[in-house]
Structure formats: structure tokens, C-alpha cells
Design goal:
Elements lengths: L5 E5 L5 H16 L5 H10 L2 H9 L4 E6 L2 E10 L9 E8 L9 H14 L5 E6 L3 H9 L6 E2 L3 H13 L13 E7 L4 E7 L9 E2 L3
Parallel strand pairs: 4-5
Antiparallel strand pairs: 1-2, 2-3, 3-4, 5-7, 6-9, 7-8
Helix pairs in contact: 1-3
Amino acid sequence: MSVDVAHVRPARPKDANALANTYEEAWRGAYQGIIPHLHLERMIARHGPRWWNHVLQRRASVLVLDFGGEVAGYVTFGRSRIGRGPFAGEIFELYLHPTYQGLGLGSKLFNGARQKLREMRLNGLLVWALADNETACDFYLHLGGKPVAEGSSASMKRACARSHLRGAERIPTDLVPINRMHSAGLNDRTPIVTRWRGDGRNGIDVRVRHA
């Protein structure tokens, strides 16, 4: 009888400390030198155990990758904040602690979130990644993503505001002020990657073309 040492499960309030640590280590590894230092430090400081405990108490859609009893990574997901096109679902964040990166474990989190979105009848999904985060972009491209759109970061904030008003998203969203973002999206038949080009300030003008 074989036992899968790595499995995906719903996050629990007692995971708050581990999630905060995973967030910190993953963000430092992914964004140091990409996101301005002070902004990166503020983001990490904001997403400590107290923040995660608050999110989990609200029963947000968070799955963790449990590796031998340790939280190795997490994924957050829900209704797409764009609210248009064939992509009803969205993966908001997917991060692995650096210790567990490069082992093929990210796909477990991705597939877990995708299955949950299907159960929620949110078919088709989007995922965003910073354009300069080549590891993340390559990860979603490896899953079959294709570039389909470009935009800046202001209209994204407007889309996020609309989704909060609709109650579509339980997880607070932080947009990072840098030059370019990719958004990766996949539907049930044709995997998609959507590109976003940020203006470095705060707006997004979205021009979407579906494959």
C-alpha cells in the first residue's frame, strides 16, 4: 500500500503561521529585484499570521499542499475578477515554499484548484503572473497557456472593485506597482494566457482577444 506524502487539502486556521512563512519565503525568492524593495517588504509585513488567520476565518477558498505534515505551498481561487469572456474562474495566487520548488509539486496545487472551480461551476480560469517572473510564466505556458490580451494595471483595480461589490471574491487583492504583468488563463478546451502591461501607476486598459 503506497502513501502519497504530498497531497492537497483545504487550509485550516492553524495553518496561518505556515502560510505566512510560505508567503514570505516565496515572495522574496520570486520578486526580489523585480518589485521595489520597500513595497515588497510592506507586502510581506502585511501578510503575516494575523492576516492569514483573518482570511481563513472568513472561509476563503484556500488549498494547501501538505508535504509530510508540513505546509509546502498554497493556492487561492474563486470567481474571475474580470467578469467577462469564457473564463468564469480565477487562480489568484499559487506559491510554493522555496524548499519544495522544482519538484513538480506546483501542478498538484493547480489541478486541485481547477477541480474545485469546476465543482463551483466556474468553468475556464485566469491566472496572473508578473511578466518578469519567468518561472511563473513558464509554469503556466508549460500547462498549455497562450497569450491573448494586453493591458495596464488601472482597469484591473476597477475590475477588482466590482468583484468586491458583487461579493465574488473573499480574498483581499493586492496589485503590485510594476511595469508589466501576464495573466494566464485556461478554459476547459483551449488553455489561454492573458498578458497585462502595467503603466507603473494604477490603471488597466484591457484589450482582450479570445483564441
